[in-house]
Amino acid sequence: MLLILGALKVAAVDFERMQNVLSQRFGPAAAGQFLDWQKLLKDSAAQTETAQLKQVNDFFNRRIRFGKEQDIWGQSDYWATPMETLGRGAGDCEDFTIAKYFTLLLLGVPEEKMRLVYVQARLGGMNSSIVQAHMVLAFYPTPNAEPLILDNLINDIQPGSRRPDLRPVFSFNSQGLWQRTSGARGAGGPGSLSRWQEFLRRARAEGFD
Known about the structure:
Blueprint: E1 2-4, H1 15-26, H2 30-44, H3 49-63, E2 65-66, H4 69-73, H5 82-88, E3 90-91, H6 93-106, E4 114-122, E5 131-139, E6 148-150, E7 158-159, E8 166-172, E9 176-179, H7 194-206
Parallel strand pairs: 2-3
Antiparallel strand pairs: 1-9, 4-5, 4-8, 5-6, 6-7, 8-9
C-alpha cells in the first residue's frame, strides 16, 4: 500500500541560516561539525552515486555518537533534524538515517531512489534472540533493483540480501509510505508519520527550503 505524504523538496538550502541555528542552540563548538559537513557536500558533489553513498555513510557513522533519545533530548520518539544531530554530535538510529537521507538529497540523489526503512533487527546475527526496533536507509539503484543498506550498526554498505538480520516493517520517503501487506507490527506504523510532518516543519525552519 502506498500513501502519499507531504513532500519536502530539498532544492535549495540556506547555509547561513543553518549555521546561525547551530551557533545559537549548540554554541561555537558546533561550527566545526557544520564546516566539515559543508566540505563533505563540496568534495562529494562530483562523485558517482556509489561514492557518495560511502562518503556520507562513513561521515555520520564516524562522527556521530550513538545514544538514546531520552539521554540526548530528554524525550522519547524525537526525530532530530540533520542540524540538531550535527550540533549535538549524537543521535539514535532514526537520526543517523535522516541525516544521511537529507545529505544525499542535497548531493542530488533522487528521493525516489531512497527510503527510510523501519526494521526489526536481530542484534548479534540471525541466531540472536535479541530483537530491537531499528531504522536504516535503503538505496535503490533502479526501481526494481535490490536495495543497498546504509546502517549505523555496521560501516559496510551491503545489499539487502546480505542483511538477513533485518526484517522490514515499513518504509517511507518524502513521496510516500510503503506498508507491508501482512500488516506486520513492530517499530511503528502510519501513525508514526505525524512525527515526520512535525520534523519537516523544523527542517524547513532551519534552512531546508
